[in-house]
Amino acid sequence: MSALIAEDELVHEDDLVWLEDISTLDYVRQSLDRLPTRRGKPAYHRDGRMVGYAVLGPRAKPSRSSGTFRRRVFWLLPHDRDTAPEGLYTTGAPAEAIDPRTLAPGSKGCKTERSEGGPLSSDVAQLLP
């Protein structure tokens, strides 16, 4: 979950790759997955769809026990707001949901009024690209 991701777990991120236009998404779910490589599109084994992933730099070290790398994956489930606007998350958002406009390599991002299902305040809009 996003709340459980610490900034120090993201220090080796070089880039975030988006597979979809994030300007239309109120939120994405993020998780740290154990993956066999630093770069490239990872395999996806959840319901729903992967919308992006992190790319790690050459200084990222694999786990001593598993040989895998912890990389962020961004995803959505079939019942999320983008496909079910009147569904479970008409307001509010899952615990691991983050406004994708607040994400950057090495930064875990944050929730905003938009990601929680409300209108985006002018104060927050000024902070977003």
Automatic annotation (TrEMBL):
Residues 85-129 are annotated as: Disordered. Pfam families: DUF6009. This is DUF6009 family protein. It comes from Streptomyces justiciae. The lineage of its organism: Bacteria, Bacillati, Actinomycetota, Actinomycetes, Kitasatosporales.
